[in-house]
Write a structure and sequence with these properties.
By secondary structure, this protein is an alpha/beta fold. Helices cover 35% and strands 10% of the residues. It has a seven-stranded mixed β-sheet with strand order 1-7-6-5-4-2-3, sandwiched between helices. A three-stranded antiparallel β-sheet has the order 10-12-11, covered by helices on one side. The chain has a two-stranded antiparallel sheet with strand order 8-9.
């Protein structure tokens, strides 16, 4: 795809409206007429008919189909959104999730009638326990941040059970943005510590921040810069010696599956983003799943219920947990997402999951090496599954990272994450994942190189992008402060 495509405007559904056109007719009402004012307050009754478009059914279908094509997803193209792990969702996962025996059950059914579903959940708990090196798992949390909060609430309950009132959570500046938010919602004060010159946790800053009032250190490993915390055992020792706990943000677990485990690094609590690491769909606010694993000393505080197995091999929901922090989600988690993740794990097996991580790391380092001559590289070392560039070189030419991201749209690519993490100026954060071919990676690399050359030779071309999208450059500040929510403005 070239970067100079033309934009074709289409009529809105309202512009297609013609009096008398009918898309669908309901049968005559067989409900006796009543005086509606006796049933509803007058203020809730319309004084005139709603101004809906009068169009044929085919116009409605084409309208919404056209709108759906404007959504970008992993099935449309390359989605190198750093930190989000937007990798391909295998269709076998979708097929199994639609099996009648799974799709048609109800969570209020008696346990004896849903033994198959409970077995899936139990076996997934066991697989995740093995993958993370934890002693027990809860599948309830519905997202990564939800898992963070759940883990922090268990950490809080653990310290309180010991008569300790610890009020602070340490968060490195390379952490995911949800970490400090989750800590705050869980009732903690967040203490931010800086990275050192190599992009890792500054151990001296950690030692200065640690103390008897610290409940936990929240850490992503590899961190959000895509760099592995090489001194993780020393970090764990510092935190544990002070009586704190170590929390693992599993957003970047796609880099370590089958290679190393958070439990072996010294972490006490871990969450996994199944909608990242285990390939289940996500985006648009849902769905998702963020199971949380804990070491033995935190098991009593897990949300109730957890799925357990009796001696006779039958499965049940264990509510007898007197020290539990309580239920954190209705029913037992996002069952359809959990099921997809279980299929993914079964499809790959242990060796396959290791290969997933190895390929993700290989792809990221390949792209980093290819793009390094054209962009600033804040940390010149091997990365894991993702890496960061800086657009500072282009900024000196008047082209911002935002402009680069907008220009990528003209080449048919979803832009990578930009301006995050905050400790890298003009940050461009790229995660290729393991599911993309070398040809796809090369195509994206070529587009980035071309944009870097355009920034030097014709910066205005980049600064005014995109050109081929339905709408061009938006006033994003105004859009956030004064959004237009009238559907009539959506082009057909």
């Amino acid at each position: 795809m070239t970067g100079n495509g033309e934009k074709h405007d289409k009529a809105t559904i309202f512009e297609l409206s013609r009096p008398g056109r009918i898309g669908y007719s309901l049968p005559p009402s067989d409900v006796p007429e009543v005086e509606w004012t006796t049933l509803l307050p007058a203020s809730m009754l319309r004084e005139k008919q709603a101004e809906l478009p009068e169009v044929y059914e085919v116009d409605v279908i084409r309208h919404y189909t056209e709108l759906s094509r404007r959504n970008f997803g992993i099935d449309n193209g390359f989605y190198p959104l750093g930190s989000c792990t937007m990798k391909y969702n295998p269709k076998i996962n979708e097929d199994v999730a639609r099996f009648t025996g799974f799709a048609k059950i109800h969570p209020y059914q008696p346990e004896e009638s849903i033994q198959g579903a409970l077995e899936v959940l139990y076996r997934l708990q066991e697989d995740l326990r093995e993958t993370t090196g934890m002693d027990q798992i809860t599948l309830q949390p519905a997202a990564g941040a939800h898992g963070e909060w759940t883990g922090l609430m268990m950490i809080r309950a653990y310290h309180e059970s010991r008569g300790e009132q610890r009020t602070k959570v340490i968060v490195p500046d390379s952490a995911h943005g949800t970490n400090p938010a989750s800590a705050s919602v869980a009732g903690f004060e967040t203490v931010t510590i800086p990275s050192d010159s190599r992009g890792l946790v500054d151990l001296e800053a950690l030692r200065e921040a640690i103390g008897p009032d610290v409940a936990a250190l929240m850490l992503t490993n590899p961190n959000t810069l895509g760099l592995f915390e090489e001194r993780i055992e020393e970090i764990a020792g510092i935190v544990h010696e002070a009586g704190g706990l170590l929390y693992y943000d599993g957003a970047n677990a796609n880099a370590i599956m089958g290679i190393t485990r958070p439990g072996d690094m010294g972490f006490d609590v871990v969450h996994l983003n199944l909608h990242k690491t285990m390939s289940t769909p996500h985006g648009g606010g849902g769905p998702g799943a963020g199971p949380v694993g804990v070491k033995a000393k935190l098991i009593p505080f897990l949300p109730a219920p957890i799925v357990a197995c009796r001696e006779d091999g039958s499965f049940f929901l264990d509510y007898e947990r007197p020290h539990s922090i309580g239920r954190v989600k209705s029913y037992y988690g996002n069952f359809g997402i959990l099921l997809r993740a279980y299929v993914y794990i079964l499809s790959y097996g242990g060796e396959g999951l290791r290969q997933v991580s190895e390929n993700a790391v290989l792809n990221a380092n390949y792209m980093l090496k290819k793009l390094a001559p054209y962009f600033d590289v804040p940390y010149e070392r091997f990365c894991k599954h993702e890496f960061v560039l800086s657009g500072n070189r282009q900024k000196k030419l008047g082209v911002r990272t935002l402009d680069i991201a907008k220009r990528l749209l003209d080449f048919g690519y979803h832009p990578p994450t930009i301006y995050f993490p905050l400790n890298v100026e003009e940050c461009i954060m790229i995660e290729p994942t393991e599911t993309e071919s070398k040809e796809t990676l090369d195509g994206f690399i070529e587009a980035m190189i071309q944009i870097a050359k355009e920034a030097e030779e014709n910066p205005d071309l980049v600064k005014n992008a995109p050109y081929s999208t339905v709408v061009q450059r938006l006033d994003e500040t105004l859009a956030a402060r004064k959004p237009v929510l009238n559907c009539s403005c959506a082009p057909y």
